[in-house]
Each structure stands twice: as C-alpha cells, then as structure tokens.
Amino acid sequence: MTEATIGENHKRFIEEMNATEVRNTINEKTVAILVFGACENHGDHMPFGSDFIFPTEVAKRVAAKAHNVIVFPPIPYGVSLHHDQFQMTMSINPETLVGLICDLLSSLFQNHVSRVLIINGHDGNIGPIEIAARLIKNKHPDMTIACLEAWWVLVGQLKKDLFEVWSGLGHGGEAETSALLAIRPDLVNIELAPREIVPRLPENIRIFWKFDELTSTGATGAPQKANIKKGYEILQILEDVLLSFLKEMESSDWKYGQYLI
User: Fold this and answer.
1) Nearest 5°: CA angle at 216, between 206 and 162?
2) Less crowded by CB within 10 Å, the N or C end of the chain?
3) Cα angle for residues 89, 90, 96 (degrees, 5° grid)
C-alpha cells in the first residue's frame, strides 16, 4: 500500500476529498456528521466563531477513531436573533436554517446516505434542527437523524464536579472558555474575561430572553474559572459519548426501538 493510498483511506473531511476518493469511501453505511454553529459575540475574551470551531474539532476527533464516518463542512451561521444587540451578530432566520438543514439532509438521502449525526454548538439552532429533522424523518422514514444538541449542558450533567460555577453553563462561560483553551488557546485572551454573571432565571419554567437582558458583556457564567485542564476533560467526555453512541448504533445496524424487538 502506497503512502498516497494510506492518506486517502484516512481522509474524513469531504471538502478535502476528490470524486474518486468519495466513490471509494462513501457507501450506504456511511455516517455523515454535520456541524452547526454561529458567529456572534462571546465576550471580550473569546472568538466569534467559538460555536463552530469547537464542535468541528470534536467531529474531527470522533471521525479519526470511528468507522466509516465523513465530516461535512461546518455551517458557521445560526439563529442568533437573541444576540443581535451585540456588535457583528451574524444571524439567519429560523425558517432559513430549517430550510438549509432540510436541503442538506435531503441531499444526503439522495446520495444514499441515511445515517446522520448532527453536532450542534449553538443554543439558537436547537429548535430549527429539531423541526428540520422531524420534517425529513417524516418524508424519509428510513433515515436515522441523531443530534448532540447542547454539549455545554451535557458535560456538566455527566461530570458534576468538573465545574465550579453554574455547572459550567454560560455563553463564553466556564465550559465554553475551557473548551476553546484546550483546542485553540491562541484565540482566547483570559485576561479580558468578564466578571462572573449568573443570570437570575426561574428554575423550572423557561423564559425566552434577549441576551442583553442577561448581560452587558456578551458573556455569562464564570469564564475566569476556566482552564485548559477542564477543556481536555470536556473533549474526552464528548469524544467518549459520541464514540459510544456510534459503536452502539453500528452494533445494531442503526436499528432502534421496535426494530430491535
């Protein structure tokens, strides 16, 4: 086997593959990973692209260890209407994102790829992702569409002693800042991290807020409590969760529910 062949066999990002490589790699059992993020203020200390930079790195790490997985280019814009009081918020309307996701899922189905894992990096995308997934699932029942909706919530739930404040929550907060420190420390200026802000919100009832009602800095949570060690732990937790999911689904040939009875 030549070095060129080895390189082709290990390619996981479709934008780096040519048509021959795609034909030789993708089949009906391929898992497509789609990443959705946002471009918006994350406080003075964090990059605007945090919401797609980090989940793209997670996708890259998972694809390197998983079998028959292809990662598609991340969508760097999301539904950020609730952040539009902050400079250079780049938002798309919810119906636009629903349509975009539907189109991408339909394209995958047309190409005989019916196994999809979405990794989402932004809270405003959760609703549109669900709507689009349900529409396409209804249209193409043979598709399996899975989603890691809110990694920043999941890590605090799975490892309750990892964070010091608010289970790591916050926009540009303890978890998000730690995550970026682990993968792109050059993009984080912790000296500019704002003071701790934990908004007062009801525990059991959701309020649909605008972000400037919660903070004046573009960030919430406790970014000053972030560190690279926590970031590495976040990466490991998410990698383990996603690889375990893929392994479980592969073992059942991506069948679930009553299909396994």
Assistant:
1) 60
2) C
3) 135
CB 105 within 8 A of CB 116: yes
Structure tokens that stand for 3 in this block: 């070095």
Which two tokens mark 234? Answer: 């976040």
What are the tens digits of pLDDT across the range 140-162?
A: 999 999 999 999 999 999 999 99
| pLDDT tens per residue across span 198-237 | 999 999 999 999 999 999 999 999 999 999 999 999 999 9
Q: What is the CB-side half-sphere exposure of residue 212 using CA atoms within 13 A?
A: 8
Helix, strand and coil content of the chain, in percent to the nearest 5, comes to 50, 10, 40
How many Å apart are CA 23 and CA 37, to the nearest integer? 28
Secondary structure (H, E, C), 88-146: CCEECCHHHHHHHHHHHHHHHHHCCCCEEEEEECCHHHHHHHHHHHHHHHHHCCCCEEE
Three-class SS of residue 187?
Answer: helix
* All structural domains of the chain: 3-254 (3.40.50.10310)
* Calculated CA dihedral for residues 213, 214, 217, 222, nearest 10 degrees: 180
Per the listing, tokens 């792109």 go with: 184
| % of the chain with per-residue pLDDT over 70 | 96
Q: Is 171 exposed, middle or buried (0-12, 13-18, 19+ CB in 10 A)?
A: buried
